[in-house]
Amino acid sequence: MMNLYKTLVIGCLLCLVVGCKSNDKKDDVSNLEVNQNETSLVMDLRNNGLLDTIQKQTINYFWEGAEPNSGLARERLHMDDVYPDSPKNTVTTGGSGFGLMAILVGIERGYINKVEALDRYLKIVNFLENADRFHGAWPHWINGETGKVHPFGKKDDGGDLVETAFLVQGLLTVAEYFDGNTEKEKQLVSKIDELWRSVEWDWYTKNGEDVLYWHWSPKYGWDMNFPVGGYNECLIMYVLAAASPTHAITKSVYEKGWAKNGAIVSDKTFYDEEVVLNYYEHNDYLTGPLFWAHYSYLGLNPKGLSDQYADYWKLTQNHAKIHYKYAVDNPKNFKGYGDSLWGFTSSYSVKGYFGHSPENDIGVVSPTAALSSFPYTPQESMNVLENIYKNHDSLVGKYGPYDAFSFEHKWSTPRYLAIDQGPIPVMIENYRTGLLWNLFMKNKDVQSGLDKLGFNYIKID
User: Are 297 and 237 in contact (CB under 8 A)?
Assistant: First the structure.
């Protein structure tokens, strides 16, 4: 990767030498202006080259690295080929939703053939049609070879509505991308529509309560007992539940369940940034891991998005800024933290899987946190990307930066998680072109759901 970085920089310089060569003499001021323009152009070319590289690598996790029978995203890919927690053929519902969107980026960037991608999408939806579902919701993990549920935990062996929402977000985005000009495209769009309509969002209110429940099991019923209140990564679930043309929730479920009758609003600040919403129901943390600013917003555009509770651009941008400022401040003096190394989220860790955040920090950095925050903090995120690829290329593998590392503990792992790799190419593309935001936000059902819940948003026709 060091060689790749040098190649990008040298290539940019060569272009400038060839393109800017001139025999005309210029005065000092003119030379200064040209040098400034050259420097800016080198920066632009280098940055775009790095963005291209990391997008191509992370997209490939979901293309080449997919589980072969289902076409869905493997829950994890370990380059050491050791899988202590779940078999390699385990696919992840939410991470697959991210992967569906990542593949669209691959098509647009020219990394993936559109016809081949269409065949992959058909393979995926055919698998999803026949996989285990529970009142329309898929489980968190699925055996990619059989379509049967692979329990995420002892009682987590049924429907997972949050993971289903992440998957549906991806499916609806794919359906908007294909215009139906061919029979295969029409077939794909029709199949996605059937899957979307079959999710019984309202059933997950547990007999009509004003809240959505995360899990249900045919064996254990509602024993997981996890009503989902905000704020966390689950906003997209409530939006889709309101948007459903067949099994929609009422607005009161959103207002009472998610927004806690207004108690979701926060007037606190952290590192001089408004927190906007209360991040936790059960403790006093002011913010959460950064994936909360990513998962719901891969398709749901936070720019211009607001309701009676929040300006969601301010919410998500401030979340990323707080993580950045915390790392620069570095109150625990962890090695390496600073303006070019920041970002904390749930990931692999020195303590197994861990939910890192400024108030729950053990010295571990997860690259996805900063790199998936490009729309919010473009320069600060670019600092991290350049730092990793230029100075720490041992932390980068076939599918992009490895999941997590710690200079403090002299620890890293050659392992990937789908839910961490997926947001990187998607959010970088949203930063570069707005592709996924524009596709998802033009869906008429989604617009109806946002209207029902009282959102203001940038409407895409």
Answer: no
Nearest-angstrom CA–CA distance, 52 and 44: 12
Name the nearest CA neighbour of 383 among 365, 358, 399: 365
SS (H, E, C) 135-177: CCECCCEEECCCCCECCCCCCCCCEEHHHHHHHHHHHHHHHHH
Give the containing element (helix H, strand E) for 361. Answer: none
- Tell me the pLDDT tens digit for each residue of 316-326: 999 999 999 99
Kindly report which listed range (220-229, 281-290, 331-340) carries the lowest average pLDDT score: 281-290
Q: State the DSSP code for 247.
A: S
The token pair at 138 is: 């898929």
pLDDT tens figures, 170-206? 999 999 999 878 999 999 999 999 999 999 999 999 9
Query: By three-state DSSP, how is residue 231 classified?
Result: coil
Kindly report whether the global pTM for this prediction surpasses the value 0.90: yes
The b-or-e profile of 12-46 (16+ CB within 10 A means b, else e) is beeebeeeeeeeeeeeeeeeeeeeeebeeebeebb
Residue 233 has what DSSP assignment? T
The whole-angstrom separation of Cα 353 and Cα 361 is: 13
Q: Which helix (H) or strand (E) holds 53?
A: helix 28-63
Contacts of 458 (CB under 8 A, 6+ apart): 301, 303, 304, 305, 441
At residue 23, the 3 state secondary structure works out as coil
Q: Give yes or no for a contact between 449 and 201, defined as CB atoms under 8 angstroms apart.
A: no
Q: What is the pLDDT of residues 16-46, one digit of tens each?
A: 333 433 333 333 333 334 344 555 655 666 7
